[in-house]
Amino acid sequence: PLGSSGYNSSNAVFTPDGKWIVYQSTPGYVTGSSLSTNGAQFYARNIASNQNIHISFAPDHSLFGGSTSNAAFSADGNSMAFSTISGGTPLIVLHNFSNNVNQIICTNCSSASLNNDATRLAYVTQASGGKSQIYVRTVGSTQSNLVSVASNQTTLGNGNSSSPILSPDGRFVIFSSVATNLVLGDINGRTDVFIRDLVLSNTIALSRYGTGTPGFGAVNPILAADGRTIVFQSFSTDLSPNVLVPTRSLYLVRLGTGDSDHDGMDDDWEMTYFGDLSHDGTADTDADGLTDLQEFQAGTNPINNDSVLRCLAVATSAGGATIYWSAIPGRNYRIEYKTSIDDPTWTTLASSVTALTATASTTDPAAPFNTQRFYRVTVLP
């Protein structure tokens, strides 16, 4: 078992890089600590070493007084934010898996969402006036920027905002709100789904009719790993053609991008990572063996040499060998194999596999009949 024998363990999840299994457990006492707690704690299992560690500790390695919840991971898998309470005050704590260090990011805050490398986070706080507001902050800074800001760019939202999702590149925040002053003409009095562009400093209501008028509202937004594909729920009948009955439906929105310099890389992707459009895709900025264009196609970070398209695991069974790899939803991949590392030729196993989640897979049914096979995954343009 992953957790301690005799205690309840639940809510297991893999880190995005597949190196850890994070779960909650409720021991009454943690050996070596001066504090005891009955609240749920976060633990992590290192898959390579098969060792469990306690990760929801205070910066001085003592226990927080309350339970911990709301785990949120950076896309690179190296960091996890979680919510807890200390002395009656809600906190967000950031855990670094590489050095096992925790730091308190903010107080009177909850519901964290991290960008790709945990340098920025979005969160919810109770602002003056009693309404929940959403802010974004650079880790290490004490200054926060208001996300749930009124259309005049200065006033707080006049209703509760919740469920922030920060895009991996740190540019967009998707959230829900009942506020009516975030965009002009929001008169439906319902919860809507909004997106805030932190670069352009503007907010758009995603749950509007095609005519621009407010609809029946929307809830529960989710964001794909590509940072540009959003799905939410709504009872509206005019967000998409042929929806005539106001039943709960799922709607998908793709954020538009452009490539004005025709180098094969979206302008906003270049602006996010390089700050300008001077890169033509041929350079290998982070010296990881992939050009900037290949990094764009793979959905990896071109300025972080630890961010690469990687095969996560090969699992064998009676039905063959299943290959798992890190992926970007909506991208297509080709899987090839060879039986000898010295063979110069790769054979195509699957010509095109479309990823539906951040981890994709395909099965090689012939694998059990071979003593060995080597696999590689290629992202298709």
Give the termini separation. 42 Å
Count of distinct strands: 25
Radius of gyration: 23 Å
Query: What is the string of helix and strand elements?
Result: EEEEEEEEEEEEEEEEEEEHHEEEEEE
Strand arrangement within the widest β-sheet reads 1-2-3-4
Q: Give the low-pLDDT segments.
A: 28-35
Q: How much helical structure, as a percent, in the residues?
A: under 10%
3D structure, described in words:
- It is a single chain.
- This protein has 381 residues and is mainly beta.
- Helices cover 4% and strands 40% of the residues.
- It has 2 helices and 25 strands.
- A 4-stranded antiparallel beta sheet has the order 1-2-3-4, with no helix packed on it. A 4-stranded antiparallel beta sheet has the order 5-6-7-8, with no helix packed on it.
- A hairpin with a 5-residue loop joins strand 10 (120-126) and strand 11.
- The longest helix is centred in the last third of the chain and has 8 residues, at 267-274.
- The two termini are 42 Å apart.
- Mean pLDDT is 83; it is low at 28-35.
